[in-house]
Amino acid sequence: xxxxxxxxxxxxxxxxxxxxxxxxxxxxxxxxxxxxxxxxxxxxxxxxxxxxxxxxxxxxxxxxxxxxxxxxxxxxxxxxxxxxxxxxxxxxxxxxxxxxxxxxxxxx
Amino acid sequence: xxxxxxxxxxxxxxxxxxxxxxxxxxxxxxxxxxxxxxxxxxxxxxxxxxxxxxxxxxxxxxxxxxxxxxxxxxxxxxxxxxxxxxxxxxxxxxxxxxxxxxxxxxxxxxxxxxxxxxxxx
Lengths: 108, 121
Prior knowledge:
heterodimer; A: mainly beta; 0% helix; globular; B: mainly beta; 57% strand
């Protein structure tokens, strides 16, 4: 089973700053099988990226996704207060689809 | 509107049984998988398993195999997650979601609102 490690665990930045979140897989995976989610406090998760880099409906273009092989990145070009959330990556492989441990984005 | 609507919060005692539900609407329920995801208090997301309502093909994460049962009733567009004997460690919020693999790639694009399960010992 492929394991996903996200870093950092917590990030505290000011509005307007650039945010870079990392998701590392224990072995090489196809980028089309990597998704990112945003979970705001008290809410269900929301899909941010399909296939590592395709923005889901309603996701602002300040969000971008990239990566291949074992290393994937979610970037927020200019942090907004409403981006306060935990971000999770997920890999889909046959019947298993584990999540990374998440990165909490805090607003200073 | 495409949506998954889950059953209400439950409070149970250890040893009791429970079945929670997830009803799909606004799309062809029998042609998409439904996944179940656990979130324990203050923790991250855990993949439990998936079911294809069209033929009830079901796959479990090894961590949850034998601990829960996933089922579906396609006649009423509803998927279920059940326990035969709850433990305090089953206290969590449980989400259902719709996994899709499109030309854009994989993602779970529709999520239920979550069902909070509290088990007291």
